[in-house]
Write a structure and sequence with these properties.
The complex is a heterodimer of chains A (about 325) and B (about 300).
Chain A (H helix, E strand, L loop, with lengths): L1 H38 L14 H7 L3 H30 L7 H9 L6 H11 L8 H6 L14 H26 L3 H9 L4 H12 L1 H16 L3 H10 L9 H10 L4 H25 L11 H15 L1
Chain B lengths: L15 H35 L5 H6 L8 H13 L4 H33 L5 H13 L6 H10 L6 H9 L2 H14 L2 H9 L4 H9 L4 H16 L3 H6 L8 H11 L16 H21 L1 H8 L7
């Protein structure tokens, strides 16, 4: 009883120390979601009587299907390309530890600082046949006019290149870091057993970094689904009309700020949040990425320990 | 081309010299590819750095990777300074002040949260950790419209406080701090300090904080890198050009000057490709410098402590 009384003020101090973060988490993580949920059924020009029927209206919006086609096309190229390329490059980097490779790793990180508006500027230059540092290759391929490249039908590929170029380098380094965590004894044992470099990479290293690859896949998927800045800037500043409401987020932005329809915009935002939430929960519960974070309850952990002991016995 | 790295396969009929040659060819091919990709990674940044040394005409007609003169940088900088009565300096100042505030608030709150979760026995620890992990994995763009509605209700639209407060929520930092405190400070240390009469706050200030300088550096690094180039949130929340950050300002230069789109019409001050490239350097180079200095920490941090030492 006395102990309980003594613990109370201590916990109170701990909660006070936690409160700045908790307040931020509540006001800018949880409350916006609650407000968006309340906002969905509010009256709007397209939903004059209010109510959750707005979700049907969003589904019937003629711009939703093209946006879905664009984004799904983008994801179908971007996610596998990222995962395969990054894994292959990190395995190649890990094959031997030549001293010059640290400079190569430094070079890979450079595109990571080219994102958002700077990425749009650079890709405009890279794909402009009169400005590009690669204009020799472009002219050789018969590309002499910007209009040969900058058209809506090519936009998926252009945006895949932009996103891939910005993100691949830093993920290569992260996966290279995960490969460094593999114990040298395991690799040595595999070598003694006659594994060649290719077998070592595919049969030993790859299965051991599987959880990091899944982690990357989920983050790349969730991020790709929310593509906004690049098509928006291309559309509004570089080539007007080239990417009008091209992505889901652009459509949501247009609903909110061009049409003043925050009900539909909130409904679309919440709908887009669902795949991201599912991805997050999959990483937390279906991979062992965060198993050390004691997400399992002490009871469950005790039960598992007892089971293990019983199995041993 | 198929690459075979067989070194010690006893059943093969190839001679050791042949095998060694095959192995070498494979290695050369892989190393050449790694170097090629490194060059491809660096060339766009090189163009960005070299472009302001030229005039607008030279940018189009000279070798894209050539250097013209240092005077070019001075001229581009002067033109940028004269644009809209020196609004660029304001954007630079805004970016620095907003980011300083974000880095400070985010690092302190995340460090405190990580410490409390690792050192205390408070309730709802698991719920707190799961909500932090979810927030960490959900892209911030997903919440922009709901956040706009909230900020609008709080009358904070076009107020830098909206960007600073929203960006200060740092679930990744809280998680990183939790991992750091759990793995580097043994719980026995807290217990013995408690027995000596240390309060929880003193536990943090006298034990955890002095041992966490590397963590604080890592938290500040990630907070800076994540926010310096952020475009979407300030673009939605800030409406007056005097409140813009550098990335939003760069976007504004795109659609208010003929630098990229000649259809925009001429401006009173010549803002052309060299000027835009110089503004791009101001956005990209600080992040690049921080990245290059802290490459190893970035890797360890992104995997949030799951890499063994």
């Amino acid at each position: 009883m006395r102990q309980g009384r003594r613990h109370k003020p201590k916990n109170l101090l701990m909660i006070l120390m936690l409160s700045p973060y908790l307040l931020l988490l509540f006001f800018f993580g949880i409350l916006p979601l609650i407000m968006a949920m309340f906002n969905v059924p509010s009256k709007s020009p397209s939903n004059p009587n209010g109510g959750w029927g707005v979700i049907k209206i969003v589904f019937k919006d003629f711009r939703l299907l093209p946006a879905a086609e664009h984004v799904l096309g983008f994801m179908a190229l971007f996610v596998p390309l990222m995962v395969i390329f990054v894994v292959a490059m990190s395995l190649m980097l890990d094959m031997n530890t030549a001293p010059w490779k640290k400079y190569v790793r430094l070079a890979y990180i450079v595109p990571a600082c080219i994102s958002g508006s700077v990425a749009v500027l650079l890709w405009y230059v890279l794909l402009e046949p009169t400005l590009s540092p690669f204009k020799g290759i472009m002219h050789w391929l018969g590309i002499t006019q910007a209009t040969q490249i900058w058209k809506t039908s090519n936009l998926t590929f252009i945006l895949v290149f932009m996103a891939f170029f910005s993100l691949a380098g830093q993920w290569i380094l992260i996966q290279f870091g995960s490969l460094q965590s593999i114990s040298t004894e395991i690799l040595e044992a595999a070598r003694v057993d006659g594994c060649n470099q290719f077998q070592l990479a595919t049969k030993i290293k790859l299965p051991l970094i599987r959880k990091y690859v899944i982690y990357m896949g989920v983050l790349v998927f969730a991020g790709g689904l929310q593509i906004f800045v690049e098509p928006q800037l291309l559309n509004s500043s570089v080539y007007h009309g080239i990417a009008q409401q091209w992505s889901f987020d652009q459509l949501s932005y247009s609903l909110a700020f061009d049409n003043g329809n925050f009900g539909e915009a909130s409904a679309l935002s919440l709908m887009l949040l669902i795949p991201s939430l599912i991805g997050a929960l999959l990483v937390i519960y279906k991979t062992d990425m965060f198993e050390d974070v004691t997400l399992k309850s002490p009871k469950k952990m005790r039960k598992e320990a007892l089971k293990r002991e019983a199995a041993k016995a | 081309m198929s690459i075979d790295f067989k070194e010690t396969t006893p059943e093969t009929s190839e001679t050791p010299r042949k095998k060694k040659r095959k192995f070498r060819v494979g290695h050369y091919a892989i190393n050449s590819w790694l170097i090629f990709w490194a060059l491809v990674s660096v060339i766009p940044m090189l163009w960005l750095v070299l472009a302001p040394s030229k005039t607008d005409r030279e940018v189009s007609y000279k070798n894209p990777l050539s250097f013209a003169s240092f005077h070019g940088y001075v001229r581009a900088w002067k033109n940028l300074q004269d644009f809209n009565s020196g609004v660029l300096a304001r954007w630079v100042l805004n970016s620095i002040t907003y980011n300083l505030a974000i880095v400070l608030i985010a690092s302190v709150t995340a460090s405190l949260a990580g410490f409390v979760i690792s050192a205390s026995r408070i309730r709802f620890k698991k719920a707190f950790l799961i909500s932090t992990l979810i927030m960490m994995l959900v892209p911030p763009v997903a919440l922009v419209i709901p956040l706009f509605i909230e900020m609008n209700k709080a009358n904070l639209i076009d107020n830098p406080m909206s960007v600073v407060l929203i960006s200060s929520l740092y679930p990744f930092g809280a998680f990183l701090a939790y991992i750091y405190y759990s793995s580097t400070i043994p719980p026995e240390l807290y217990e013995s300090a408690r027995l000596d009469g240390c309060s929880d706050f003193r536990l943090y200030t006298k034990i955890a904080f002095p041992l966490s300088y590397p963590l604080l550096a890592l938290l500040a690094f990630f907070a800076f890198v994540g926010n310096w180039g952020n475009y979407f949130m300030p673009y939605i929340m800030l409406q007056s050009p005097t409140n813009y950050t550098l990335p939003v300002g760069l976007g504004a230069l795109f659609f208010s000057t003929p630098a990229i789109n000649p259809g925009n019409g001429a401006t009173s001050v010549p803002i052309l490709k060299p000027e835009i490239a110089l503004a791009g350097i101001l956005v990209a180079v600080p992040v690049m410098i921080v990245f290059l200095i802290s490459q190893k920490r970035l890797i360890r941090g992104m995997l949030a402590g799951s890499i063994k030492e």
